[in-house]
Specification:
The complex is a heterodimer of chains A (606) and B (239).
Chain A: H1 3-22, E1 26-31, E2 35-37, E3 42-49, E4 57-59, E5 66-80, E6 83-96, E7 100-104, E8 108-110, E9 115-117, E10 121-126, H2 144-148, H3 152-155, E11 156-162, E12 166-167, E13 172-181, E14 190-192, E15 196-197, E16 199-214, E17 217-230, E18 234-238, E19 242-248, H4 262-267, E20 273-279, E21 283-287, E22 297-310, E23 314-316, E24 321-331, E25 346-358, E26 365-376, E27 380-384, E28 388-393, E29 398-403, E30 407-412, H5 449-459, H6 461-487, H7 489-495, H8 497-506, H9 514-533, H10 542-552, H11 558-576, H12 583-605
Parallel strand pairs in A: 2-10, 12-21, 22-28, 23-30
Antiparallel strand pairs in A: 1-3, 3-6, 4-8, 5-6, 7-10, 8-9, 11-13, 13-17, 14-19, 15-18, 16-17, 18-21, 19-20, 22-24, 24-26, 25-26, 27-30, 28-29
Helix pairs in contact in A: 7-8, 7-9, 8-9, 8-12, 9-11, 9-12, 11-12
Chain B: H1 2-31, H2 35-45, H3 51-63, H4 67-80, H5 85-97, H6 109-115, H7 120-144, H8 150-169, E1 178-181, E2 185-188, E3 197-201, E4 206-212, E5 216-221, E6 226-231, E7 235-237
Antiparallel strand pairs in B: 1-4, 1-7, 2-3, 4-5, 5-6
Helix pairs in contact in B: 1-2, 2-3, 3-4, 4-5, 7-8
Classes of the chains: A alpha+beta (606), B alpha+beta (239).
Chain lengths: 606, 239
Amino acid sequence: MNLIGKLLLLPFLFCFELVLSSQNTVVSAWVDKKTVPINESFTLTISVTGTNALNAKPDLPAIFDFNIYSSGKSSNISVVNGQISSTAEFSYTLTPKKTGKFVIPKIGIFTGNEKYFTKEIEVEVTPPSFSNQPSQQTYPKQPKQKKQNISSDELIFVKAYTDKKSAYPGEQITLSIKFYTALPISSNPQYLPPSYSNLISEELPPVKTGTEVINGVRYYYAEVKTALFGIMPGKASVSPATIIAYTQSQSEEELDPFDPNFIQKFFSKAVNTKEVKLQTKPIEIQINPLSNPPADFSNGVGNFFITAKADQNTVNMGDAINLTVEITGKGNVKSINPPEFKSENFKVYDVLSSETLSKNNDIVGGTKKITYIISPTREGEIKIDPIKFTFFNIDSQKYETIYSEPIKIKVLKPKDGKTYDFDKTPIQNEISKKDSDINYVYEKSKSVLIFKASKFINEFKMYINAVLILILLINYFTNKKLEIIASNPKEYAYKKALSNFKEKIKTVKFEPESKKILGIIYDSIYDYISAKLKKNIGHLTFSKLEAEILSEKKDFSKELLSELKKTIEKIEFLNYAASEIKKEEMEKLITETFNLMEKIEKEFSK
Amino acid sequence: MKKILFIVFILLFDFRFVFSQSLNEAAEKYKNGDYKQALEIYQKLNDGENPYLIYNIGNCHYKMGDKTTALSQYIKAFKILPRDARIKENMLKAAGDNGEILFSKDIPDFAYSVYYFFSDNELSALFELFFAIFVFLIVTNTKRKDNSLMSYIVISAFLFSIFGVWHMMRKNSIFHNPGVIAQETDVLSGPKNNFNTLATVPKGRVVTVLSENDDYFEIGIPKDNIKGWVKKEDLIKID
């Protein structure tokens, strides 16, 4: 992708983040009436503008002086020239419980990152105004006799009911909790709402009040309505709601609650009150499954229409267009999934959504606003195709698909002749490296044998090398020697004749039998002479032996030959003698032979 | 005999168990930021030959802010186990923090990884190993008299030559007889105060220790072409 093109688009793509981060969060709260009669209600509005406004969530503190009901939330995002502003408003209906000056405490709003607080608001609750109260003629005074015949339980009670016992997921079910009293009460009752299972709730303020005659008894009533939406097919339930009221003691002078001056009279005197705690019965609702939802079902259940508009119809290549799609109608718009925007001519960079709830005539509805930030991928006259939206029409009990009008966009050449390359890879925020740290310690022990072994070898390497070189040298010289022997064995035998003789003679020490010793000496003499004559003379007779020696060395000493003859004859004599040879005699013979051979060696060396 | 073997086995097992327990304790202290306590345990366990413990000791010093001692420990660990990524990375980071560049950016990291794959001791041991194999093959071949082992002899000769040359080359490395300057110090032309100051070396610089006498180390910094003497207390010698 062209880097310059990307860079040009980036400011817009990141402007959402940048603008929001630079924008200060502003939190404010106000009431529509600073002074309110006890028999009326007023509206508290909390507004959050700025960073993370859409994520804001008020954390209402315990407000004991008022009953408080959520009457809706509206949020809005607007994108103008790349400037994004977001606002969320939370509305609550408050009904006072008693007269006097009261303070709505600071309300905390958590935006996901930080917590902000509203200012305290002072509200004065005055005695009731009767401009809107029914006239005395319409509701005649309660006949005292009739009331005395009815038990106190029947004079004050609460009931809960729903407008339907079964519904589809997402279809509105209206829950009414109605409090009746024919007894004077010291203040507006306290309402503890029920909890819900498999249901989403939306309160439907304001509290409706009035009178109703049941079995001839005229009751004052207050009605709280709540819109419920089933989540999953199956059973859903509403747990009991609780009403806590304070009635005047029977012993006191009776006050007629329908007396136009009842509350003025009531609050003008000190009374003994009695707490009455009332509970509704639990309610069960069957949530039926929607049959065969289409693949593109938006999760919307109700009756809606769709519109779409672009913030500009002529743009340059690379510019962003805010395509705003609004889905309006009755039904829980919060649960609607934004329709998918698909087009080869546009690339979608972001999708922002907000909703505004309305509760007119106790029916929940509103507008889901989806803003697609798109950019054209080619020049010329191009069309934004109709946006498709499929929902379950609660009126016709059928799935319905509706379309927005197509929008024509004229795309001009990019400013300054820049080109753009749109690939399919979503742009990701780059990782920003903040800091670096050293690697963590080794927590487990590891083998260090190889390090120790190599260190050990290194410490003794001089000795190891010396031994190895010595082995090499020995091998070399041994090999050389063997080569010499192999090249002239007779010459080698000639040189080694005496040492070989001595080696052989040394072995006789270990021989126990004298005859064998004589044999060894005899053979050694002949081997020696054979080596010296460089021929195998075997066991020749001495005369032949003498001839061989003289033929090899003519000037050989006659004395030595004579001595050699005597020694050989002596050995032969002893060998054939019957008796065993004495040790001393044998040692003498060996010594003599030894000395003789050394003399002969010298003679040969001459 | 069996009893002796059993006792030896038990003692070894007990030693490993105690070692492992102490290591866990030190790791826990380190994790909780108690680096001083962790350091004490690591130092007790350290026999000077375990690169992982030396590395951990370096980490403790680093975390306590003593990056010079940390660097000396990392270099010590690196000399024993140069192919460990953690040791290498921490050493380079500590060196960087001390203003020292150990590996030139002009040379690819891969080249350093190959060059420092084996430690000096390992290179020496490998040389000895292949030299011994070479000698064994020579002797065997001489006895056989048929030259059938000649190819193996050539391979072993090649390998021991490679490791020998490699080991010799490493003597020029910055990690051969290294030392770390513990505090900024003067490099003198001789081993006494009255000699000229040749240079001033900042803390944390890695130098080569050439020789020593009672009070001074003779050091060299080849890349800056400096050679001279520094006081012993100003340098951490890495054995």
